[in-house]
Amino acid sequence: MSFYSPGETAEKSGFSIDTLRYYEKIGLLSGIARNASGRRVFSDDDLQWLEMLRCLRGTGMPIAEMLRYSELARGGDETVQERLELLQEHDRRVEEQIAELRTRQEQIQWKIRLYSGTLCEGLPA
Amino acid sequence: MSFYSPGETAEKSGFSIDTLRYYEKIGLLSGIARNASGRRVFSDDDLQWLEMLRCLRGTGMPIAEMLRYSELARGGDETVQERLELLQEHDRRVEEQIAELRTRQEQIQWKIRLYSGTLCEGLPA
DNA sequence: ATCCCACCTGGAGCGCACTCCAGGTCAACA
DNA sequence: TGTTGACCTGGAGTGCGCTCCAGGTGGGAT
């Protein structure tokens, strides 16, 4: 079991120190330990939790919903069902998101081919 | 060739009327016709352009870059090369975006399986 | 004639998710 | 002993992309 300074944690988690502080303030991070002089000390568990937060944020989950998830996580075993449903619902939205991105991307690629064609036409034979 | 009121255009394009006005104001939409009483009249061409804008916005292109693209589009044939490069670069970013979403989604799905497992264990035999 | 409704304008306001700042503390190193 | 640098706090500020508002106009139905 290792411990990490805010700076290390920022680097490992990909969140800025300011964001870590912000997440603690709003309740996305709870029970972060402090050393004798009041500085934050992050554990491996904290890092794992941050990785989860990264997955959720990185797939577009709004902070408010992540907050809900954190509350459930704090609630222990009784909330597993609810957490499961929340993640499944989110997973569905991510799927849709990817599908829409693909569709839009195809249209953009179509346009790219069109432009490429235009350029070729202009070429000397 | 048909013409469309702002309301129709909003419905067809998926942008709100306010957003259409905003886009015209900042220069993403140019040369939108007006009728005798000053109201906007959108053409099929405008609608096609809006569809393109939707693709770009919907895949996360920032307004500033769309503005760049619009300027190029107004520049005529000489800018085809540049437009091509812009779209290709964007296409690359969309690809990355999708890849990251997939990675994150897999981690979330792993978590979902974990929760499902937890629930099954608790089941009576 | 009057009412309504869709539209017009310039400009203010909003929600989100950070990000920055001023002023302070503490530990380590020169 | 002084300086540096990483960290602390509460709170203000930022950037983006809209979204809303007040006050006004014009055209068609009643």
Tell me about this structure:
- Chains A, B: Residues 1-72 form the HTH merR-type domain.
- Chains A, B: Pfam families: MerR_1 (PF13411).
- Chains A, B: This is MerR family transcriptional regulator.
- Chains A, B: It comes from Actinomadura soli.
- Chains A, B: InterPro entries: DNA-bd_dom_put_sf, MerR-type_HTH_dom, MerR_fam.
- 2 copies of one chain form a homodimer.
- With 125 residues, chain A is mainly alpha-helical.
- Chain A has a single domain, classed as Multidrug-efflux Transporter Regulator, Chain: A, Domain 2 (Orthogonal Bundle), CATH 1.10.1660.
- Helices cover 70% and strands 6% of the residues of chain A.
- Chain A has helices spanning 6-13, 17-26, 44-58, 63-74, 80-121; strands at residues 3-4, 33-34, 40-43.
- Chain A has a 3-stranded antiparallel β-sheet.
- In chain A, strand 2 (33-34) and strand 3 form a beta hairpin.
- The model of chain A has no long low-confidence stretch (mean pLDDT 95).
- The A-B interface holds A 51-52, 54-56, 58-59, 77, 80-81, 83-84, 87-88, 90-91, 94-95, 97-98, 100-102, 104-105, 107-109, 111-112, 115-116, 118-119 and B 51-52, 54-56, 58-59, 77, 80-81, 83-84, 87-88, 90-91, 94-95, 97-98, 100-102, 104-105, 107-109, 111-112, 115-116, 118-119.
- The structure holds a DNA duplex (30 and 30 nucleotides).
